[in-house]
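Sample pair:
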Amino acid sequence: MMKKFSGHRLWKLWTGLTDGILCLLLSAMVTLACVQIFLRTFFGGGFLWADPLLRYMVLWSGMLGAVVATREGKHIAIDVITYLAPEQTKAWIHLVIHLFSCGVAVILTWAAVIFVRNEALFGSTSLMNVPAWIWNLIFPVAFGLIGFHFFVALLTDIIAFFGVRLQQATRAGTTTAGE
């Protein structure tokens, strides 16, 4: 018997995967940095490739951290307008903010794709003779995922907003019909 694969299970799998990759990356960074410190302290030098690799790992963990923060709604936000706005307009404000943020993320994704494509065309290599564009793939991937998470937040806002409106209209219709 085949089990039904729901969107909720897929979402949990996705969040577990991104969280797991981020945890592995951070653990590897801390371990490599400690090994590098140990080697420098006791042997007068470390691995030549470790410092550039750590820089790339910091970049990747920062971008993946931004993806996770966006997914959780804990990204940096300037919420003065939402804080001061009346309760009735907050749903509209969130909708507009998520629409704008999604648009900005899509533009940044496109710019990052162009950047990585140009890196690939230039053909330069970086750390460990790996092409530079591979190390920079995190930019379009992360901005694309950030845009995806803002799009999901936008859809959630739309469903919540129009769901509330539909419930209010239904209640108003039953109240009018009952009079």
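The chain has six helices and no strands.
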